[in-house]
Specification:
Layout: E1 2-4, E2 15-22, E3 28-33, E4 39-47, H1 60-67, H2 77-86, E5 90-95, E6 99-107, H3 111-123, H4 129-146, H5 150-162, H6 184-194, E7 200-206, H7 210-221, E8 244-248, E9 253-261, H8 270-282, H9 288-296, E10 300-309, E11 314-323, H10 327-344, H11 348-360, H12 369-381, H13 388-397, H14 401-410, E12 418-423
Parallel strand pairs: 3-7, 8-12
Antiparallel strand pairs: 1-2, 2-3, 4-6, 4-7, 5-6, 9-11, 9-12, 10-11
C-alpha cells in the first residue's frame, strides 16, 4: 500500500510502500524503506503493560521498562550506556496500561551492533541492585512531584474511581507505598511473562531492505519466549458516572476532568464518534466547548475533549482549568454542550469543516521517520489493517449527519460523567 512521507507538501508527490516482512524465525514487521538518509527508526510493543502488574504492587511494568536499558548481558548500566553513546544510537522503553513499548534509532552503518544491543536489553536485562535503586529513586521522586500536580492528581483519581476493582484503576507508575516494595524477582517475572514473540508488534522506517530487516528481527527478538504468560484482563465499564469528586488543593485555579463511556477502537461507529468529538472539543479554536467556555463566557483559557480507546474499554473525556469560583459553571456548561450535541447533533457546516481539518491535517502525522513508525505501530495494535492509511481519509469523508446522529444516540449516557475537580472549587463538594 502507499504512504505519504516527509511533509504535507512532499505528500503530494512522494510515496513509498509499506511492506509486510516476516523474518526466517516468523517475526512480523511492517517496513517503509526510505533511503533518503542512512537512518533506521523502529517502534515496537509487547501486549501486556501495567495491566499485568501484580494487584498489590502497581508500578512493576513501569519500573521494568525504565531498567531495560540500564545494563544487560555482560554490560552493566554504565557500560551499556557507553555502548549506546559510541554507536550514536537511541534506545528507550516505556509502559502504558496495555503495552510495554520500545523505540530504537540507529545509523545504518551501526545497524548490526544496535540490534544486538537491543537483543541484550529485551532478552538479558540485569536488574543490578545499583541500577534498580537509582531508577527506583527517580520514579519515587517523580511520584512525589506528581502528588502536587493537579492534572496528575485528577487523572489518577479518575481512573481509581472509575475502575476500583480492575487493573485500569491502578496507577501505571505505582504509588509511593508500592514502588519501594518491588523486588528484583518482580522485575524478572514481569519480563519473563510479558516479553514474548506472540504479542510483539514492530514497525520500521529507514534505510534497510526486507531481507536485512528479517535477519535483524531474529537477531533482536528471536531468543524471546514463543508465547507470553499474561493474566486475563476483563472488558470493563467505568463506575461512578454522574458523581463529582473534589481533591482539595490550594491553587488559584481548579482543574476539572470529566470522563465517561466512549466507543472502543474496533467499533464501527468509532470514526463518526471521532468526528463528533472534534466538533465538540477536539479542535483547539473552533470547537463548541472552546466557543462556549472560553469565547462566550471567558471561563477558561483552554477547554477540550478527547477519546481514549484502551484494549478493554472506550472512554470519552473533557477537561479544563478555571478560577475556583467558576468551576461549577464550567462543569455545567461542558455538560450542557455534551447533551446538546448528543441530542441535536452537529450542523452540516460543522461536519464539513471537521472533515476538511481531519483529512487535511492527517499528513502531519507522517512528517518524520519516527512519526511514521509510531503510526504504523499503532495501526497494528488497533488491528486496522495494513491498508488503513489509504482508507482513513475516505472513512472520514464518508461520515454523514445520520452517522453522527447514530453515534450520538449510542453515546447518550456520555452526557453524564464521573467528574474529578482538583483545587478549591466554590460550591462543590464530593469524594
Amino acid at each position: 500500500m502507499s504512504l505519504s512521507l516527509v511533509s504535507p507538501a512532499a505528500a503530494q508527490s512522494q510515496t513509498t510502500r509499506i511492506t509486510r516482512v516476516v523474518s526466517p524465525g516468523g517475526i512480523e514487521a511492517w517496513l517503509v524503506r526510505d533511503t533518503t538518509l542512512p537512518l533506521i527508526a523502529m517502534e515496537f510493543a509487547f501486549r501486556g503493560g501495567a495491566a499485568q502488574d501484580p494487584p498489590a504492587t502497581p508500578g512493576v511494568a513501569s519500573l521494568t521498562a525504565s531498567l531495560l536499558d540500564e545494563g544487560a548481558g555482560d554490560l552493566d548500566a554504565a557500560a551499556f550506556q557507553r555502548k549506546v553513546a559510541d554507536l550514536a544510537m537511541e534506545i528507550s522503553f516505556d509502559a502504558n496500561r496495555d503495552e510495554l513499548r520500545g523505540s530504537l534509532r540507529t545509523l545504518g552503518e551501526n545497524r548490526d551492533a544496535a540490534f544486538d544491543l537491543l537483543r541484550l536489553a529485551v532478552t538479558a536485562p540485569r536488574f543490578d541492585e545499583e541500577a534498580v535503586e537509582r531508577i527506583r529513586a527517580a520514579q519515587l521522586a517523580s511520584l512525589r512531584r506528581r502528588s502536587t500536580d493537579p492534572n496528575s492528581l485528577a487523572s489518577e483519581r479518575w481512573f481509581a474511581l472509575a475502575f476500583p476493582d480492575h487493573a485500569y484503576g491502578r496507577p501505571v507508575d505505582g504509588t509511593l507505598a508500592s514502588v519501594p516494595t518491588i523486588t528484583q524477582a518482580d522485575l524478572q517475572t514481569f519480563t519473563r511473562n510479558t516479553l514474548a514473540r506472540d504479542t510483539l508488534k514492530v514497525a520500521v522506517v529507514g534505510d534497510i531492505g526486507p531481507e536485512e530487516l528479517g535477519r535483524e528481527l531474529d537477531r533482536a527478538f528471536g531468543a524471546l519466549p514463543a508465547k507470553a504468560t499474561l493474566r486475563p484482563v476483563a472488558d470493563v465499564a467505568p463506575k461512578g458516572i454522574g458523581t463529582v469528586d473534589v481533591i482539595p488543593l490550594n491553587i488559584p485555579q481548579s482543574v476539572v476532568l470529566m470522563g465517561t463511556t466512549g466507543l472502543e477502537r474496533k467499533d464501527d461507529d468509532f470514526i463518526p464518534a471521532y468526528v463528533l468529538n472534534h466538533i465538540l472539543g477536539g479542535s483547539a479554536f473552533s470547537s463548541r466547548l472552546f466557543k462556549e467556555v472560553r469565547e462566550a463566557r471567558g471561563l477558561a483559557y483552554s477547554v477540550y475533549s478527547y477519546q481514549v480507546a484502551l484494549e478493554h474499554v472506550g472512554l470519552w473525556f473533557a477537561g479544563t482549568a478555571t478560577k475556583n469560583e467558576r468551576a461549577g459553571d464550567s462543569i455545567r456548561i461542558i455538560g450542557d454542550e455534551f447533551r446538546k450535541i448528543l441530542d441535536e447533533g452537529p450542523t452540516q457546516t460543522e461536519l464539513d469543516e471537521a472533515k476538511s481539518y481531519l483529512t487535511g491535517s492527517y499528513a502531519l502525522r507522517f512528517d518524520t521517520s519516527s512519526k511514521i513508525a509510531g503510526q504504523l505501530l499503532q495501526i497494528q495494535i488497533d488491528d486496522l489493517g495494513i491498508d488503513y492509511i489509504d482508507r482513513r481519509n475516505a472513512l472520514i469523508e464518508a461520515v454523514t449527519l445520520d452517522d453522527l446522529r447514530r453515534a450520538a444516540h449510542r453515546l447518550t449516557e456520555a452526557a453524564k460523567a464521573l467528574t474529578v475537580v482538583v483545587g478549591r472549587p466554590a460550591g462543590l463538594s464530593g469524594g
